Amino acid sequence: MAEKQAKCINEKSAFSTPATVVIVLGFACYLTCGMVELNPSLYAQPLPEAQAIIDAWSPVSWCLKLLVLFAFVVFSCRRGSLLGEKSLIFATGGVYSFGIALVYLCGWGSTVIPVGLVIGQLCQAASLGFLVLWAELLCASNMRTILLLVAGSYVASFVLCLLLAEFSLVTFIFLTALLPVTSSLLLLSFHSEPKEQISPTPITSLKDLPYKEMLAIGIYGFAFLLANSISEARISVSVEQMTVIAGAVVSLFVIVVLSLIKGRFDFTLFYRLVSPFLVVALLIVLLAENGFQQYESFALGGSWAFYKIITTTIWCVLAMNSTLPSGCVIAAGQIILTLCDRVETPVFWAIHYFGLPQGVVIAIVILVVLLASAFLLNERDFLRPQKNSPLVAQFDTIDEFYTECINNAALRYNLSLREQELSRMVLQGLPSDEIRDKLCIAPGTYKTHMRNIYSKTEVHSRQEFVALLRNSAEDTGQNPNLPSS
Fold this sequence. Notes:
By secondary structure, the protein is mostly helical. The chain contains 22 helices and no strands. It has helices at 2-6, 17-38, 48-79, 86-107, 114-123, 127-138, 143-164, 169-188, 211-234, 240-260, 267-274, 276-287, 293-321, 326-354, 358-376, 379-383, 390-393, 398-413, 417-427, 432-439, 443-457, 462-472.
C-alpha cells in the first residue's frame, strides 16, 4: 500500500500548472480550426466555383470522417492508449494542417484549383482524430478538472477566432494552417506522462459501450443543428461575431461557477442547475423575430458552447467508467454524434416542405431536448467510481476499493451489516429497484434503511452519500497533498 500511495496524484488535478496551460492552449489550437469553419463570414469567402466543389464533395468528406473515427476505434481497442503513438499524433496534425492549407490556397485566391481543393477537403477528415486524442488525455483527470480545462480551451479558441479575423488573408491562411501542427507538438509533450493514468487494458469487444448516453448526446446535437438552421434561414445579416463572443462569455461563466463551488464536485447536480439555460436559449432562438438577430445569435452561440463543453466532459466520464480504452469510447461517441447530425438536414427540409407551423416546430425541438436531457442523466454512470481516477488507481481491483470504502465508513459511522451491504451496492451505482431485488426487501424497508444511513452519516442525498463513501477510502493514510505528476 505504501508504494501505491507514493504513486498517488493530487485529487484536485492530474496535471501540474504548466501542463494545464499546455493542455488549454493545445486543445484550443485544435478547436479554433473548427470554429473558423463554422463561422466563415468572419473571414474571407471562397470563390463561388470553389464553394460548389466543396458542397459537391461534402458527402464524401463526411464518409471519410466516419472511416477515420472507426479506424481510431479499432486501433484503440488493439493498442490501448493512443497517446504513446507519436507517429499517429504527428500525422493527425500534419494531415489536418495540409488539408487546411490546400483548401484555402486552392479556393480562396484568384483562381480555383479543383484537384487541390478536393484533396484538401478530404485531408481535413483527420480533424476528428484530434478530438479523440485530446479527450483521452483529459481522461487522466477528474470531472471538475475536465470541465475547467475544456471551458478554458473554448475561451482561448473563441479569442483566437476573433484575433484571426483581424489579419490579412495570407496571414490568416498561414496561422490557421499552423494551428493543427502546433496542437500536435503540444500533445506530444505529454508522451512522458505516467501511462497507468491514461492507458486501460486493451480489449476487442464493443458490447460495453455506453450507447444510450452516446445516442442522447447525438439527439442533443441534432436539436441544436436544427435550431441553427431555422435561425440562419431568417437572418439576413452576418452576426457570427456575436455568436463567438457569446461562446466566450458562456465558457467563462462555466469557469466562474466551478470556481465558486466548494468541496466535492457533483457533476449531475451541476448539470441539473445549468441545463435549463439550454432550453431557455433554444426558446429565444426559435421565438425571435426579424430585428432581433443579435439576441438570437448570442443565445445560439452561448448554448452551443455550453453543449460542447458538457459533451466533451460526459464523453470523458463515460470513457473513465468504461472497461474499454478511452480512445475507443470517445471515437464511438463521435461516430454516433456525426450520424445524428446528418439527420438534421432532411428534417429541416421536411419542415419547410410540409409547412409545419412555428409552434409545432418549437414544441418538437424543446421536447427532443428535454427527453435527451432525461435520457442523458444516468446517475448510475456518473456515480460509479471512475477506474482511472487517482483515488481508485491506488487499489489493485475495484472490489478492493469498494471494500476499503465500506469498512472505513462502517467503523466511523457504526453501520450495521445490512447497512454495509446496502451501502456497497449504492457505491457500485446500482439503481434502487435492483438493490431491493438483490436484498429481497420491500420498498418501505429500503427507504427505512436509507433514512437510517443518512441519519448516521449526516448526508441528505444519494450523491452526497456516494461522495462520503469515496472519501472514506482516504482513511488508509494516504496524503492528499502529494505533488501532482
